[in-house]
Design a protein that fits this description.
By secondary structure, the protein is mainly α. The protein has one domain (2-114). The chain has helices spanning 2-24, 30-51, 57-78, 85-110.
């Protein structure tokens, strides 16, 4: 139950950051818009994972992790515009972190019995 409450509050934070970033940068560039939309989707899925019992919470949290990881990958891609050596390092580090987070999300979806709390 604690993890579901944490998911709810993390989701609220991500939703506020995603929508707020989109509004503050309106009209955003294509990649920034995609990144903010993915953050907002991840936030909505985390909130849903924390409040609903109609759908398995680990499924919603897993798809939210995939969306959050994808937003990190998009963040790494946006830094490559006119990149220097340090930008490549940052892009690779953020890309690996985002892909790792997405893989954890896939594990939430596939092996939900290990995460399910009664």
């Amino acid at each position: 139950m604690v993890q579901r409450r944490v998911n709810r509050w993390v989701g609220v934070f991500l939703l506020v950051v995603g929508v707020g970033g989109f509004v503050l940068s309106f009209p955003p560039s294509l990649l920034l818009g995609v990144q903010m939309a993915l953050l907002a989707v991840a936030g909505a899925l985390f909130v849903a994972a924390g409040v609903t019992d109609r759908v398995r919470w680990s499924l919603l949290a897993g798809v939210g992790n995939v969306a959050l990881g994808s937003s990190l990958v998009v963040s790494g891609i946006t830094t490559l515009d006119g990149a220097e050596t340090s930008d490549y390092f940052y892009a690779v580090a953020v890309g690996v972190g985002g892909l790792t987070l997405a893989a954890i999300g896939v594990l939430y979806v596939v092996e939900h019995d290990a995460f399910d709390t009664a």
